[in-house]
Amino acid sequence: MTTLRSVSLIGAPTDIGAGARGASMGPEALRVADLAAALQSHGVDVLDRGNLSGPSNPWLPPVDGYRHLNEVTAWNQTVHDAVYAELKTGRMPILLGGDHCLGLGSISAVARHCRDVGKKLRVLWLDAHADFNTSALTPSGNIHGMPVACLCGFGPQQLIEIGGKVPAISPKWVRQIGIRSVDAGEKRFVNEQELEVFDMRYIDEMGMRHTMELALATLDANTHLHVSFDVDFLDPDIAPGVGTTVPGGPTYREAQLCMEMIADTGFLASLDVMELNPALDLQNKTAKVAVDLIESLFGKSTLMRK
């Protein structure tokens, strides 16, 4: 099911929450890989809003358990405002990251929009990591490992209140897919909060089709479906250009099926594409794969049957 959609590309060129530099170049790499033209080929109206601006990365050690907290807050507030503005005009925001700490600004804006219009929210978090850390659980202090926890109300005050309501979302609205790297304390916390996680073992045992059927279950026309796609979700063999590679991710075919099944619902309403790091990539290979998979979210299909 494909509908003519109006999409706005929003670049967020920062690696402020990450442990490696380079994700700040992600938005440009996606543009170089012809994301806009790929979407236009599927009848999508594309407006590139250019890049947001925010504080530069001071590359400092953590303070009180958080690295770059004020800069992360500033970037997320800017992302929140930009995403929220697009949703208000009826356009679909595609946030081009940047590191995954920005999922906080993006999803808090989506949640706020859903409150405004009375819609339910479902978040698909496609990632190798649960990103459900707190300063008490992670020694690094890198906030790109914390956005889901912050969205669920666990984190520093200035971050958790960005969307105007604490918590911004309920863990029950989230489905995490492809997870395969979780710290021990984080694992306990995820289980306590009853986050629904389809890890790689689950995908290996049950297959991507069954996984996605469950992750997409009970969606209806009153559901806003948000996909937060961390490129490290993919196996590093096909997507080497990320700062935190974890072997054993979904193959190209599994990822295609995942995206095609999301597209089939017709409910995709906002998207993040995060953690693409061209500095670690091979000839923009990862950006090209990402664009290919985003095309599948917009109706490119391998199906031959009618």
TrEMBL record:
Gene3D superfamilies: Ureohydrolase domain
Gene Ontology cellular-component terms listed: cytoplasm
Class of enzymatic activity (EC top level): hydrolase
EC number of the protein: 3.5.3.1
Pathway(s) where this gene product acts: Nitrogen metabolism; urea cycle; L-ornithine and urea from L-arginine: step 1/1
Species name: Kinneretia aquatilis
Designated name of the protein: Arginase
InterPro entries cross-referenced by the UniProt entry: Arginase, Ureohydrolase, Ureohydrolase_dom_sf, Ureohydrolase_Mn_BS
Binding site for Mn(2+) 2: 232
GO biological process, one term: arginine metabolic process
Pfam families with a match to the protein in the record: Arginase
Record keywords: Arginine metabolism, Hydrolase, Manganese, Metal-binding
Catalytic activity: L-arginine + H2O = urea + L-ornithine
Single GO MF descriptor: manganese ion binding
Cofactor: Mn(2+)
Family as reported in the entry's similarity comment: Belongs to the arginase family.
Cofactor stoichiometry and binding remark: Binds 2 manganese ions per subunit.
Residues that hold Mn(2+) 1 according to the record: 100, 127, 129, 131, 230
